[in-house]
Amino acid sequence: MSPGIALAYKSCQKFSRVSCVVAIVLISILNLARVELNISVQLIIALSALALGIPHGAVDHLVALPSRPRSRLIIYMGIYVVLAACAVAFIAHWATLGFQLVLIMSGLHFGFGDASFKNEELEYSGKERNSLATEIIFAIPAGFIALLLPLTNSQTASALARINEDIVNWAGGYSHLLRMATLTTALLSLGCLALLKKFDLALDLLLLLLLGLLTPPLITFAIYFGCWHAIRHTARLIPKLHKAQNLADAHDLWGALRAAVFPGLYALIGTVCTAAILMVFSPTNFSSSLLWSTLVLVWALTVPHMLTTARFDFSALGSAAK
Question: Measured between alpha carbons, how far is 261 from 303 in angstroms, rounded to an integer?
Answer without folding.
Answer: 20
